[in-house]
Amino acid sequence: MIPDWRRLLPWRQQEAPMAEPPKEPVFEQPPREPGAERMEFQLSLRRRGISSREVLRAMDVVPREQFVLPDYVETAYADQAMPISCGQTISQPYVVAYMTEQLDVHRDHRVLEVGTGSGYQAAVLSQLAGEVYSVERYRTLADRARETLGRLGYTNVTVVAGDGLGGLPAHAPYDRIIVTAAAEAVPQTLVDELTEGGVMVLPLGEHSGPQRIVRLTRHKEGVARQELIWVRFVPLLPGQAREL
Ligand code: SAH
């Protein structure tokens, strides 16, 4: 069939209005190939230094668009933090990948996350760990994350509404602990819930300023500390949120 040139040339279309509206939409640009964003997403993580194949694979299989608010679905794979409910944020993908890589998670590990937020980081951890427990102080966020993770079939994640600063004694000790909100001091309760040889990764620093990702390893003799990249996180606050 000969294409109607007026449908292909929008300015001509204005000059010579058609009797009938076009049945198919006129694209000014060809639609992006499905998967192009995901490919770019993987490339940018590699370019920024993420090298663990397991972490890259976990980042590849978890559908980030399922964890962002509807207004952000189109830009879900952009390398930036985005708002979620209750004034909180879903972390930037690079920081999720970086912290996960630093956590060095293995299949036989039990992992605790403090700060479930959207559930995205927990979903990434679920691909690498045996069991994941995640605590969130906003019930609204905990309920929503539990629903999202359940719908997507991440059966090894348990979301608990509560104050993660008190740890989660019911399932302690943990081989790995990740805190995804900024702490002004190392929470000793969490250190106490680490196994010997256990690792904790957390953003540490003043709530008002930039913070540093810190990696703590618990040894018999004490805790070894490594300071890593600068980041900016929402604050780790005591107590379960009274509303929401
Ligand atoms: N990991 C999340 C991003 C978390 S933003 C994701 O992948 O989407 C940090 C979260 O930590 C917020 O939801 C905030 O409510 C929560 N938080 C802050 N202090 C907390 C505490 N004491 N216990 C549990 N959650 C806390």
Distance between the termini: 58 Å
Portion in strands: 15-25%
CATH fold node name of the domain at 95-231: Rossmann fold
Question: Which small molecules are bound?
Answer: S-adenosyl-L-homocysteine
Radius of gyration from the alpha-carbon trace, in angstroms: 22 Å
The global form is: globular
The order of strands across the largest sheet is 5-4-3-6-7-8-9
The largest pleated sheet is described as: 7 strands, mixed
Range of helix content: 25-40%
Textual characterization of the structure:
- With 244 residues, the protein is an alpha/beta fold.
- The chain has a domain at 95-231: Rossmann fold (3-Layer(aba) Sandwich), CATH 3.40.50.
- The protein has 8 helices and 9 strands.
- The protein has a 7-stranded mixed β-sheet with strand order 5-4-3-6-7-8-9. A two-stranded antiparallel sheet has the order 1-2.
- The protein is globular and about 55 Å long.
- The structure holds S-adenosyl-L-homocysteine.
- S-adenosyl-L-homocysteine binds at residues 88-91, 114-115, 117-118, 120-121, 135-138, 141, 163-165, 180-181, 234, 236-238.
